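Sample entry (202 residues):
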Amino acid sequence: MASPPSPADLTLKSERLSPLATLTPPSLTRAWSTTPHPTLPIVATATGTTCRIYSLTSFTLLSTITGGHKKAIRACAWKPNSATTTVATASFDASVGIWSKSNSGADGGDDDDDDAAADALLSDGGFGETQSGTVADDHADEQWHFAIVLDGHESEVKSLAWSAGGNLLATCSRDKSVWVWEEVAEEDYETVAVMQEHEGDV
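Predicted structure, serialized as tokens:
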């Protein structure tokens, strides 16, 4: 019978973490969250009333999503398995926004499709990144379409998450509730469940 491992064997190795880069230009307001895209080399940050999209290859700002929310955005979530690049935003104004950007080569297919989508997004014709890595100001916001706003929560929406298939979105709030939304048609969502059993913030 094998003997149990000694405490020395169970000791975790000390790993040193160091920053790779600083996202530029930095936001001048508090960043509430950062959310990497599940397949593309981009990350969304929730800063003030904007959602800023940065490249994870050049670490530069690609696009700024603004408008739609009256108060600061607290969290962002990328929609998986989507023919468009779609991000949902949770706000202190008790609403959820859904933003989309068409991808000419993305249809949720194989790795070649993901590579084509990434190439399209990170080119001049995608998010508006120039060859020098700066943002084309005239088009930074125009690349994104504000699809819909989801209302129902009575207080700030603190977090949100998509289902693996991308057809369901769960949102949780300081009002102690969790709402589940289903996309029943393009840019059309319905509430399918409201859970209110919690006694404190969710």
